[in-house]
Amino acid sequence: MKINPWASPLLIGAVALIFCSTLRAKEVQLLNVSYDPTREFYQDYNRAFTKYWKEKTGETVTVRQSHGGSGKQARSVIDGLEADVVTLALAYDIDAIAERGKLLGVKWQTQFPRNSAPYTSTIVFLVRKGNPKGVQDWDDLVKPGVSVITPNPKTSGGARWNYLAAWGFALKKYGNDAQKAKEFVRQLYKNVPVLDSGARGAMTTFAQRGIGDVFISWENEAYLASAELGKDKFEMVVPALSILAEPPVAVVEKVAQRHGTETVAKAYLEYLYSLEGQKIAAKHYYRPREKGAWASSPVSFAELKLFTVEEFGGWQKAHNTHFSDGGIFDQIYKP
Amino acid sequence: MKIQFKKHSVLPGFGITLGFTLLYLSLIVLIPLSGLFFKTSQISWNEFWHIATGERVLYSYKLTFGCSLIAATINMFFGLLVAWVLVRYPFPFKKIVDASIDLPFALPTAVAGIALTDLYSVNGWIGKLLDRAHIQAAFTPLGILIALTFIGLPFVVRVVQPVLQDLDKAEEEAALSLGAGRFSTFFRVILPEIWPAILTGFTLAFARALGEYGSVIFIAGNMPMKTEITTLLIVTKLEQYDYAGATAIAIVMLLVSFALLLTINVLQWWSRSRHTFTTAQELQ
Amino acid sequence: MTESRFIRYLLLSVALLFLGLFLFVPLATVFTRALEKGGDVYWEAIRNPDTWSAIRLTVLASVIAVLLNLIFGVAAAWAIAKFDFIGKNILISLIDLPFAVSPVVSGLIYVLLFGLQGVWGPWLLEHNIKIIFAVPGIVLATTFVTFPFVARELIPLLQAQGTEEEEAAVVLGANGWQTFWKVTLPNMKWGLLYGLILTNARAMGEFGAVSVVSGHIRGETNTIPLHVEILYNEYNYAAAFAVASLLAALALVTLAIKSYVEWKSEL
């Protein structure tokens, strides 16, 4: 690439501004770029991993954390945020890092067992105390007079799982008739009075503004939120069928290579699959893959039938069909 | 007559200040903004047109420009009033009120948005009262208006305040002693003096409202074709990693805003030169 | 020599009612939510080391942005308000432009320039220079969004004042600097003050643009508004509002500076 003639004066200014970024200690450092509500989970986990790594190799590792919306975090990594590992909300975002940023192989999902998703969650409903509208399953969400709160799947990566869960239910119910499924989802979104841009905004709309009868949410976030907002105000309803939400993890190979942190980055994510790692995930309301760790959770996870995003042919396909501009989600908002 | 770039003046420092202004403007604003055009040039003109004039995009322009215009107008009137009261009348806790005027800037926009939605949604403090009058504020265009008024509040106040403070009381008193009423003194003597400042404040509040995102998304409800602002559509494009599409919409906003800003600035310049011209005539 | 008592009270009450509805009640809401869980949660949120690193970064970025834009604003106001030249309106409109750019886009433009996929990104990586997702990017974005304030505050003020006093000073033999320090600066002190206050407030509160270039690394590249968002997104509502309420303390700083300038000018 040619150096732009404008670059030099700008750079002189920029170099003068650089002083904080040069402060780096000698110990091994990892940057884990994660999505929103995982801070407390990774705080616990990082402590456990640091201890484990010190005992195993004698090396001191410090894990720095970055949290934000999943899509935005992926964009930052593509644009140069130097993440050694990413732990995001959906595989679509890591696919983007692989394809657009070319920072890891497109087959990244085989790096680690179980689709590179060491812990999972599912999509459940939160209703008001006593469940006044008698919401039990997805069918109840399309009834007239039931008001549903869910964020906009086009701006919130997490909310795409909500949409796909509803779609998957409808497909099962109507024997794979896509047209009927579309009608079902259209009915559902007709009952959505406010499309917040993110899960937290939607939660505020539901909990604080008193709008809506049902809030569609990730299971782990529903537990986090009821802990914050008061357990006695809301009830969780688990539908009979839902989607298995698999938040994936990956080593960002190019960056780790440059930092010389490949080994420790890989070990960091592998340790998530150990019993210790699984227990910490359970403690923070994620469903661990290891059934033996389920008991470590402060809550007891309900058994339900789960389908995966493979029903839709994977994230790329699901995204292009449903969430791209002019896709099905846009169509259901056409009058 | 020979057209000159600059009218003659005895004051020094024109070259250096203008030069520095242009340099800094280029470094901080123009060169970075050129990045937008660079990115958009990756798509064809047809695609650009298709993205920039989609049905939902067109609607969002209307909503965004409409609400921003109304909010800036509200701020123009009330901002002038607040500046007037702060400069001229004594009242208890005046200093605290004065110092709080800038807080809409200091509060992170999301916090402002959440706090406003708290108040103006149906079970909120003010929303309850409005609901009784069958007015729904939150999650309607009215909610967007409220948020935009809040974030633009400091502009007119802070731009008019120093000019008012500085205003020559002698002129005003002369007009009064010559028998002009308070009303006509205000319109004939004071208003022409502070008018450029009012317009500046209006322009700034308007421009700021056009691009606002953080506070609006909480109170707007974001329903397609109802309360979807343009910036939200830009964010939607970014979430799909469609940088070119996002910059396409951003460029349309940028060009239209620039045209509007230029129009207002020309109007202001025109009204100023007319004003100086008439005073000059009156003096003769 | 002023309006009748009735008009005065009327104007005053309308102004205060407007401020109440649009400013003070929302502010009160922020404090109520911050203290919802009691004083302990409030102090805990503020004492957190991440909060402190966010405060340090915010202050650093604001100070740099304020200084840069101050120098620019005074220069631009001098050129624009004291001289007549062709293309002035275009120049003023260009100065306004950063306002009309959505904060999301203001961050994006720096990503398009300095990001790994951007114009200078690969070069920067090769030379190991970090601009975005580090402090320089945050400073740049903050400077961009607060760019017009000082200039736009001073231009109408200096225009209203005209050039007679400076011309007199120059004719009497003062040089440029003397004219500026002795004549112009005292005349524009209020405009300068409000310009600084606005720039600083906006610099500290900016979220959108900074959020795009920050990378959100805890304890390193989070400013106060970003830290607030992260707390909120973790369902830590009371803590989020507690940290946000810190920014309201800025009003006290404003109060202090203004009183100081008033006191100085009375001497």
CATH architecture of the largest domain in chain B: Orthogonal Bundle
CATH fold label of the largest domain in chain C: MetI-like fold
Strand content of chain C: under 5%
Radius of gyration of chain B: 23 Å
Task: Output the CATH topology of the largest domain in chain B.
Answer: MetI-like fold
Structural class of chain B: mainly alpha
Helix content of chain B: over 70%
Task: Give the gist of this structure.
The complex is a heterotrimer of chains A (335), B (284) and C (267). Chain A is of the alpha/beta class. Chain A is 42% helix and 15% strand.
How would you describe this structure to a colleague?
The complex is a heterotrimer of chains A (335), B (284) and C (267). Chain A has helices spanning 7-17, 39-57, 70-78, 91-99, 113-116, 157-173, 178-190, 199-207, 219-229, 253-259, 262-270, 275-283, 315-323, 328-331, and strands at residues 28-34, 61-67, 85-87, 119-128, 148-149, 214-218, 234-237, 241-245, 249-251, 287-288, 305-307. Chain A has 335 residues and is of the alpha/beta class. In chain A, the strands form two sheets. In chain A, strands 4, 5, 6, 7, 8, 10 and 11 form a seven-stranded mixed beta sheet that branches. In chain A, helix 3 (70-78) runs parallel beside helix 4. Chain B folds into two domains: 13-42; 53-283, Orthogonal Bundle (MetI-like fold), CATH 1.10.3720. In chain B, 78% of the residues lie in helices and 0% in strands. Chain B is globular and about 65 Å long. Chain C is mostly helical and 267 residues long. Chain C has two domains: 1-35; 38-266, Orthogonal Bundle (MetI-like fold). In chain C, helix 5 packs parallel to helix 12. The chains are: A alpha/beta (335), B mainly alpha (284), C mainly alpha (267). At the B-C interface, helix 1, helix 3, helix 4, helix 5 and helix 6 of B face helix 1, helix 3, helix 4, helix 5 and helix 7 of C.
